Amino acid sequence: MAQDKQCSLLLEFASRFPLPHGARFSYGTAGFRSDGSILASTVFRAGILAALRSLKTSSTVGLMITASHNPVSDNGVKIADPDGGMMTQRWEPFADAIANAPDPEHLLQLVKDFVKEENIPFGGEQSAEVLLGRDTRPSGETLLKAAKHGINAIIGAVAVDMDILTTPQLHWMVRIKNKGMPASESDYLSQLSKSFSCLIDLVPKERVADCSDTKLVVDGANGVGGEKLEQLKKMLTGLDICVRNTGKKGEGVLNEGCGADFVQKEKITPSGFGPDDVGIRCASLDGDADRLVYFLISSSSSKNIDLIDGDKILSLFAVFIKEQFDILNNNSDSDNKLAVRIGIVQTAYANGASTSYLKQLGLEVVLTPTGVKFLHKEAAKYDIGIYFEANGHGTILFSESFLLSLEARSKELASTSSGSESHKAVLRLLAVSQLINQAVGDALSGLLLVEAVLQYKGWSIKRWNELYQDLPSRQLKVKVVDRNAVVTTNAETKVAKPLGLQELIDAETAKHPHGRCFVRPSGTEDIIRVYAEASTQEAADSLARSVVQLVDRFLGFPSSH
Ligand SMILES: CC(=O)N[C@H]1[C@@H](OP(=O)(O)O)O[C@H](CO)[C@@H](O)[C@@H]1O
Ligand SMILES: [Mg+2]
């Protein structure tokens, strides 16, 4: 009976969200993405998916409506798992299947088969909860309604509308809620501001005097991040934040000529910035505030910027964390040192100079395929895993067991040598674990950690930028007949198929000093990406161009030859 009621409810709701003619959706690197005007059926079905995921895990999950750094007319949807991370990859084929089910009957059949296979309580025996968030895109409101319908199509499932949020805020809320702790937006903001002020209080006294450099100008990409940062900044002291491109009326369009993606790809000043900002520390968020890059305008006569990307943010964090362990262990007896496995996780897009720098610090560096779900999973294998994509998405993960050891050490030091250098180092590490988002990369918490570390080190943005010098690089795109004809191995650094292509790439690369080059199919666009690095910009450009020609020869459209 209950099953019948469930089936007819699902059929009825699904009939209100027909699949657009000819559309095909795929749960890619970052969930479903498309033009916002054709996404209602997809988001409705993602609502069903989220409700089933909640039933399966007996936990709260999240559903976020965003298309991140993409144009304002785009939108998208992705699911957050109970730990706040991305939905398990194991469920992606089912996500694809239901998103493309041609009609309500097919959709119902897929759901029925899946709940049976996965042993999901279906028909109202158990309750489910989905937290919903969306960014500031105009299509978000209608799509949110579609998501609610999808969730309500599953009996026992409840949708909780958290309104406009950054993507990392929603992921954080899901994680914290499942830990049984207060998980509202104000809890999030107060956790960030408290842990930030704890780090600032632990800045060595002699360096506090040098910290006159407190001004930071932030490009909010005309998205949700700027608005949230305005709220957060009221709760902070010791930092003078000015937010531009806030998305307020008249200030500009979401991600248009601004934001972290624009700044990282174009390497020029975003709109709203200019000669008056020469020498000032500047940062850019992306449209849903899960990416962060910094930049410096060094001359009033040029639009060019010095980009401080995800690799350099990672390097700053790695230097800081390593230093805290050096302080702790240099001040401990040999039998009382705290053993820690720190892992640095990057992708092949990380600038080679960053990888060399991190290795030279004695750190273990591993590469994974592109996409934060791969980096996150690898970082979670360490006591402390620091991961970043060059584009500015990343975070620092602390394992639960390592946090317990840190807390135990902190208690011990509080009773034996409170206020000692070792004690302060442990307190700093614990504050970092509170400040930095443990669920996903988070531009707001990342920004506060950068600011705290710069104050701790007494470093200007210029000094930070000089940690190492990026090797010149070039990224190009090639349109091909079928991008899936390219199969890669070794964290996407080598081409396995088509046969023979890798040998030719190797031969080209060998012609350039410090040359490095790889190609891979994009997970978000219908293209092949080519990345090249070399000791000069001209060489990087020429290597990338030659490899584009090779890819075109193997896989391009016949007419272009
Ligand atoms: C070179 C590059 O920047 N790739 C981006 C891009 O993936 P592609 O699979 O390369 O299209 O979008 C992903 C999702 O936002 C992001 O994780 C990744 O870093
Ligand atoms: Mg984003």
- Poorly predicted runs: none
Shape category: globular
**CATH top level of the largest domain?**
Alpha Beta
- What is the CATH superfamily label of the largest domain? Alpha-D-Glucose-1,6-Bisphosphate, subunit A, domain 3
- What gap, in angstroms, lies between the N and C termini? 63 Å
The total count of helices amounts to 19
What's the total number of strands?
19
Rg calc: 24 Å
Q: Give the count of structural domains.
A: 4
Structural class assignment: alpha/beta
Q: Roughly how much helix do the residues carry, as a percent range? A: 40-55%
Function: Interconverts GlcNAc-6-P and GlcNAc-1-P.
Pathway: Nucleotide-sugar biosynthesis; UDP-N-acetyl-alpha-D-glucosamine biosynthesis; N-acetyl-alpha-D-glucosamine 1-phosphate from alpha-D-glucosamine 6-phosphate (route I): step 2/2
InterPro entries: A-D-PHexomutase_a/b/a-I, A-D-PHexomutase_a/b/a-I/II/III, A-D-PHexomutase_C, A-D-PHexomutase_C_sf, A-D-PHexomutase_CS, AMG1_II, AMG1_III, PAGM
Catalytic activity: N-acetyl-alpha-D-glucosamine 1-phosphate = N-acetyl-D-glucosamine 6-phosphate
Summarize the structure in words.
The chain is an alpha/beta fold and 561 residues long. Helix content is 42%, strand content 18%. It folds into 4 domains: 2-164, Alpha-D-Glucose-1,6-Bisphosphate, subunit A, domain 3 (Alpha-D-Glucose-1,6-Bisphosphate, Chain A, domain 3); 189-308, Alpha-D-Glucose-1,6-Bisphosphate, Chain A, domain 3 (3-Layer(aba) Sandwich), CATH 3.40.120; 311-465, Alpha-D-Glucose-1,6-Bisphosphate, subunit A, domain 3 (Alpha-D-Glucose-1,6-Bisphosphate, Chain A, domain 3); 473-560, Alpha-D-phosphohexomutase, C-terminal domain (TATA-Binding Protein, 2-Layer Sandwich). It has helices at 2-14, 40-57, 92-99, 104-117, 140-152, 167-178, 185-201, 205-208, 224-233, 260-266, 310-330, 352-360, 372-379, 400-417, 421-435, 443-457, 461-465, 501-510, 537-555, and strands spanning 32-35, 60-65, 74-80, 128-134, 157-164, 215-219, 240-244, 281-285, 292-296, 306-308, 342-347, 364-368, 384-388, 394-398, 473-478, 487-489, 494-497, 516-521, 528-533. A 5-stranded mixed beta sheet has the order 1-3-2-4-5, with helices on both faces. Strands 7-6-8-9-10 form a 5-stranded mixed beta sheet, with helices on both faces. A hairpin with a 6-residue loop joins strand 18 and strand 19 (528-533). Helix 7 runs antiparallel to helix 15, helix 7 runs parallel beside helix 16 (443-457) and helix 11 (310-330) packs antiparallel against helix 15 (421-435). The relative contact order is 0.09. Magnesium ion is lined by residues 68-69, 286, 288, 290-291.
